[in-house]
Amino acid sequence: MGNRNLCHHVFGMVGTRHVQHGGFVPLACRQTMRIDFYRARRGSLAALCVLIFIALVAGRSLRSHSWQDVLPYSAFWAATMVVLDAVYTVPFSGWALYSDWRLWLGYALVALIPLLAPHSYRLPKEHDV
Question: What is the pLDDT of residues 48-78, one digit of tens each?
């Protein structure tokens, strides 16, 4: 059994290992934790970029010329995310889900990024008019 499998078998999940065992983490597991931390960071950054891209595309699809026209839609999208998380995720993970700041960041980005979409249109040039 490799270091990674041994660490998971003996000490449980990587994210909770430090808390569960009073700060004691064997030397063999520290490298595994470091690798998992950076792997999770890259995944979070990629997910953040995808979220921003999809929010911009959704905002542009409304073809509005003012952020005030986009606001009701983006607020509804964020509220829908909150409700769907409450319905589908809370029964399995509990209400502690809402204590994570990254979740609220996602909701805020879904509500705010589409508001930038009207600014992403190309302005007409004089000879286009």
Answer: 899 999 999 999 999 888 999 999 999 999 9
Q: How many CA atoms lie within 13 A of 115 on its CB side?
A: 13
Per-residue pLDDT tens over the stretch 5-39: 444 444 444 444 444 445 554 444 444 545 555 56
Rounded CA separation 8/46 (Å): 25
End-to-end CA distance of the chain: 71
Residue 127 counted as domain residue? no
**Would you say residue 128 lies in a domain?**
no
42 within 8 A of 50, measured Cβ to Cβ: no
